[in-house]
Specification:
The chain is of the alpha/beta class. The chain has a single domain, classed as Protein tyrosine phosphatase superfamily (Protein-Tyrosine Phosphatase, Chain A). The protein has a 5-stranded mixed sheet with strand order 1-2-5-3-4, sandwiched between helices. Helix 4 packs antiparallel against helix 5.
Length: about 150
Amino acid sequence: MTADPADIRGWQRLSGEITTSGRLEEADVARLAALGVRQVVNLALDSHPEALAEEGVKLAAEGIAYTHIPVPFDAPQEAHYEAFRAALETGPTPVHVHCIMNWRVSAFFYRLNRDVLGMPEPEARALMVQQWEPDASEKPEWAVWADFIAPKAG
C-alpha cells in the first residue's frame, strides 16, 4: 500500500476511507490516485491564489470523481454543509476532502463526527484542533466559524 503523503499541507487520515488536507498541488493528483482515492471533495474557492487550476479536469484524467462545494471563508452556510454531507453519503469511497488550509474541512468534519456519526464531542474536537480551532476570542473574524460549528437546536 502507498504511504500517506504527509507532506501535503494539513494532511490527515480520519479513517480507512477518508483523508483530508489543505490545498492540492499538481503532483498530488497522481498521489491521491495511487492511494486509491475515488472521489475528491473541494471546499475551497477556485479564485483562491493557491487553488489548483482545472482541478476537476485533472482528477477526472486519473479516474477520480470531483465534487466542488465553494465555501466562502467568511460565510459558511448550512447549504454548504448539507452538500458536503450529500457528497460523502452518495459519492464513491475512498474520499479525500480538502480546502486550502484544512480549516473549513476540519470544521465540517467536526460537525459531522459530533452530530451525525455520534462521536463524543471531546474526540471530535480533538480531531478538528489538529488542524484548526476557530476561536473568536483569538480572531474576531472567526466568529462565523464558531457559530457554524456550534450545536444546532432541533
